[in-house]
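Researcher: Batch entry, complex prediction.
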Amino acid sequence: MGSSSSSRNKIPNAQELMRQTGFSSAHLLRLHDRFESLDRDNRGYLSPDDFEALGGLAMNPIGGRIIEAFFSSGQDTVDFSSFVRILAHFRPTDRNRNKEGTQQELPSSRTRKLKFAFQLYDLDRDGKISREELLQVLRAMLGLQVTEEQLQSIAERAIQEADLDKDDAISFDEFKKSLEKMDIDTKMSVSFLK
Amino acid sequence: MLRCGYALFWLLGSVLLICVVSPVKGEAVVTREGSHLKLSESSHSNESQHGHSSNITGIPIISFKWHHVETPYLVAFWVLVSFLGKLVIEANHHVTSVIPESALLICFGFILGGMIWAADKVQTFRLTPTVFFFYLLPQVILDAGYHMPNKLFFTNLGGILVHAVIGTCWNAASLGLSLWGCQMGGAMGDLDIGLLQYLLFGSLMAAVDPVAVIAVFEQVHVNDVLFIMVFGESLLNDGVTVVLFNVFDAFVSLGGPKIDAAEIIKGIVSFFVVAFGGSLVGLVFGLLISLLTRCTKNIQIIEPGFIFVLGYLSYLTAEMLSLSAILSIVFCGMCCQKYINANMDENSVQTVRYAMKAFANGSETIIFVFLGISAIDKVIWVWNTGFILLTLLFVLVYRFIGVFFLTWILNRYRLVPLEFVDQVIMSYGGLRGAVAYGLAVMLDENKIKEKNLMVCTTLIVVYFTVILQGITMKPLVMWLKVKRAAVTEVSLLEKLTNKMFNHTLVAIEDISGQIGHNYMRSKWKYFEENWMSWILMKPSARKKQDQVFDVFHQLNLKDAMEYVTEGERRGSLEFVRNENSIIDFKKKSESESFDINNANMSNDHGAMSTTSRDPIPSVSLEMHEQIMKAVREAEAINAHHLLDQHLYKSRKQHRHRFSRSHFDINRDEKEVQEIFQRTMRNRLKSFTSAKMGVKPPKTIVKHTQKEQQQKMPNGKSMDKAKTSYSGDEGSEGDSASGYDQSYMRATYRAGAGIENPAFMPDLDPMDLLQIPPWLGESELDSSMVALSHRAQVDLPRTPSNLRRLAPLRISTRSTDSFTLENIPDTQQMDSDQLQPPPPPPRPPRDDGYV
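Model: Structure tokens for the complex:
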């Protein structure tokens, strides 16, 4: 099934997707193959279970969050175009394209990448990373290496660092500002095979 | 040899005493030396006969034995001269910011060389390949390997390898062939150089030199990726250079007609063997170092030695097996860095870092100085305009062509392509250095007639690249607006997000179904954490490897330093005694008390967030500052007096002072035990006396608490403060027993600075007695009831705050006891928090009462 889908016609509104995401048609085809192989029941959409079936994700400390990022709030399915749009965040930033001032910002732009990362922290989607949310991330990633107290003071300190308006939480602007110097482009990009 | 020595002394005279350089004939050196150095004629005649003094009539009181010490003396002296040169050069930052240090050192070498030449009329000192490859180079390379940013390196390994292998081959081949072509075309007159010799020359000129690259790029601060591309290439191309050089050297010896396909294939095979074999030797030694440092718990002082010795051995072993020595020592350093840093004691790590830098810097200095000195030698200067200029031109042009072509290919596969300006800098950064010179000197004059021309050309290329390109590098980087390395402050959020990105990328690669770079890295990391670390790291070191926590620790350390500096700048640490710090306490304790499952947390949270916050984020310092404060308040003189009188005098204090293996002084188990026992005895006595109302016998502690309270101007309030402290308004006996508990804990926590804490409490009664000023006056003015509040509000929290920062824990006396005793109190005291901020807290004193 996966191998037969090598014609672009099978992908719904491929042109539109390419324009929105910046993926080439070769990329799209590959991702479509992948999508279909993930979609074991051939339903045309993916559910969280499909993601969880991936061995690597189960091992990943923040695997659950990433799966969550694929499902916009309230829905428990993701179709191909949303799937691609999420993955498009991880394309390397296209320098030339942004300079042309195209109609809209591609998902691979710096801000969009950051936004994506921000949402991985921001579980309740209130636009702020609260101390508790930060703690949860810390707990997931540092695991047992550090004591709970240390985790808490790390979270405390991280918030203090970034928190400019002293509301004890990190807003997106603050988040963006504190990561100003970071080379997001390298660190938040995957080289998609063609 | 003798003359070397004299020239050297002369140098000493001229450099240090700033004598006028006056060329004197070589024969005259001896006498001149005599006048300079005030040597007696007899000693000259003695040593001129190599110490076999034939005409000694009696026992000489002193004798001058230059030959006895000549070699080490020369070495040490040259090191000294080079360092002095560096000192002078570095004295002026305006110069070094324009002209790179390496260029200045070479010029300094020119001057020194000129002096020697003037003295001897022959160049007695030059950089010999043996000295360079065996004693100078390994240190620089080991340092490079040990401080290599591993992640960056492996991320760009593909690109680095392409440039190092293909790029170097390209440089060698193109240079050799072009020069040969030019000679065929008649561009450089009559030279006796065949094609193979040209290729040999090309191969020695091909390699970008790590020493020169580090020296120049270190001062330019280009972005990480660019740096690692140039630097990594310069390190890894050694394998290629060695092979190419050896192969062509062999070909030259064989002679053209005897070379057949089999030989060429052997050459190619030997490349892989040399490169991979060298790396493998390095890895093995790296693992060996890691394993050894794992077992040095009892003799930590020799830890740093292992790294240097084994690193050097890996170099020599690879050299012995005719593998790539540079690759070997690079990989040795890269492989062991993580494990040894985790295994070794903090002090050893610092020692290694500094020593490594000191050695590398020293070697580098000497290398450049001697590169300069070597130039002043009439023998090697064989001028052939065509050959030299064409070489320069080809070296530069082919470097550009090679880099641009290879990067163009690489960019099709790179996640973030290298930009045009980066490529320009990469090409321009292709500096040649001492490795090329060392190889050129190693050429066999019998086989290659024009050896001197080659050496001379190599030197010119080296000077051209290091001096001219080195000087213009910085302006070029500015002018092209090359992305510079960001001066980043360590930030927790950044580090955390970074870590999250890593996980995210792995997940995305999982989802999009490709086995990419991140996937491999996560697999490696898994393997590394589960196997390598387990074998190579101390069990205790394994826990603390998380980066986020490291950053946290570093930040806290930094705060602590700033804090103390700031305090000292203001003359005292008083400035922290403001309301903010108190509020901060509350808030922190609040944040501490919440639990994961606590659903109400977000509400509390919002409420708390309205309170103003202390800009000083450090947590543990509060404890420290209070101790400091108390000390200051308590009239330092009296305190010192008391301490002198009553502190436990460690009998074995000096025991280890001359030990070569331990720095610590008071680690003796018995002593700790003794302190503990004595303390306990005292406690017991005070306990019984409190219970029975009996005056205790006169011991070290002359005044019990009972006594102390009676003699106090107004005994009751202090009493109150104390009793409320232990959460128990009962008799002193009870509180005293409470203390006993705490002391047991404090002492059993054997480890950091026990000796004083255990004994401190005995001082406090004395304090109270002898120092009425701060007790009677200042305290009486403020309300005594408030004191108890303060004690309750502030103190109980410090210990828990402090505990977060285990590494910073100074000898926090009875910290633990507070935690134990008072944590229950904290809850009920919360109501107190809302009252107006009390006057400055003085917890340490309360602490003393306990």
